[in-house]
């Protein structure tokens, strides 16, 4: 059984999409082992507890990044997770955190990276005038929205789009892309050449 650790800071919609995928068989032999949040009162943490999942708030106030991340690392290791999934976790991970789970931390970002990293990606895309936006699931490294890309999904930008309407359509694709990317990584049927995520021994889909 594959075990996932989820980190979140807000509503947890991608966490819920991942959880549903484990329940419906889209992610077979996979379970969510623990849900962790740097905020105590967010809907995502409440949703995890409602579903009977181990869910913990890890305080960050007055702590150094190293101290904060050490507790996250310890919780994840205690839960024996195979993969760490950031689901709206709004803090950069320290190099020590990344090193503790090499090529085992995933994130989803609401743009076609490397375009528009960071906050307000959808607004950045609209202001730049792109005709196609989307989402990216990638490995996490020490840099912001920078790791090797696992998969992307494109979304057409409409002339009447606002940041909110574009965000909503991208989010639909995030909920499909994240479980698919998790399945690809857990299959171990891939290799990385430079920055390219490539299938090994057949199609990953």
Question: What is the compact description of this entry?
Answer:
The protein is an alpha/beta fold and 205 residues long. The chain has helices spanning 13-24, 43-50, 65-78, 95-100, 121-128, 163-187, and strands at residues 2-8, 30-37, 55-57, 83-86, 105-109, 132-139, 149-156, 190-193, 196-199. The strands form two sheets. It has a seven-stranded mixed β-sheet with strand order 3-2-1-4-5-6-7, with helices on both faces. Strands 8-9 form a two-stranded antiparallel sheet.
Annotated CATH homologous superfamily: Formyl transferase, N-terminal domain
Strand % is 15-25%
Shape: globular
Determine the number of helices (DSSP H or I, runs of at least 4 residues): 6
Biggest β-sheet, characterized? 7 strands, mixed
> Which structural class best describes the helix and strand composition?
alpha/beta
The third-level CATH topology is: Rossmann fold
The number of distinct β-strands equals 9
Helix content: 25-40%
What is the arithmetic mean of pLDDT? 94
Supply the key terms.
single chain, 205 residues, alpha/beta, Rossmann fold, 7-stranded mixed β-sheet, 6 helices, 25% strand
Protein architecture, described:
The protein has 205 residues and is of the alpha/beta class. The protein has a single domain (2-199), classed as Formyl transferase, N-terminal domain (Rossmann fold), CATH 3.40.50. The chain has six helices and nine strands. The protein has helices at 13-24, 43-50, 65-78, 95-100, 121-128, 163-187, and strands at residues 2-8, 30-37, 55-57, 83-86, 105-109, 132-139, 149-156, 190-193, 196-199. It has a seven-stranded mixed β-sheet with strand order 3-2-1-4-5-6-7, sandwiched between helices. A two-stranded antiparallel sheet has the order 8-9. Helix 1 (13-24) packs across helix 6. It starts with a strand and ends in a 6-residue tail after the last strand.
């Amino acid at each position: 059984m594959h075990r996932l650790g989820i980190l979140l800071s807000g509503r947890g919609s991608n966490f819920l999409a991942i959880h549903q995928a484990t329940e419906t068989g889209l992610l077979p032999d996979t379970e969510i082992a623990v849900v962790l949040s740097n905020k105590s009162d967010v809907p995502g943490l409440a949703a995890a507890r409602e579903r009977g999942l181990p869910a913990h708030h890890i305080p960050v106030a007055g702590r150094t990044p190293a101290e904060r991340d050490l507790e996250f690392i310890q919780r994840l290791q205690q839960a024996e997770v195979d993969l760490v999934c950031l689901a709206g976790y709004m803090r950069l991970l320290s190099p020590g955190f990344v090193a503790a789970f090499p090529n085992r931390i995933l994130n989803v970002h609401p743009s076609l990276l490397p375009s528009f990293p960071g906050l307000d990606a959808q607004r950045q895309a609209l202001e730049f005038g792109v005709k196609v936006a989307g989402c990216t699931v990638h490995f996490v490294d020490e840099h912001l929205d920078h790791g090797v890309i696992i998969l992307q999904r494109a979304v057409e930008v409409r002339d009447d789009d606002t940041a909110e309407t574009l965000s909503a359509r991208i989010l639909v694709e995030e909920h499909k892309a994240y479980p698919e990317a998790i399945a690809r990584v857990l299959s171990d049927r891939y290799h990385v050449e430079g920055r390219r995520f490539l299938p090994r021994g057949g199609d990953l889909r």
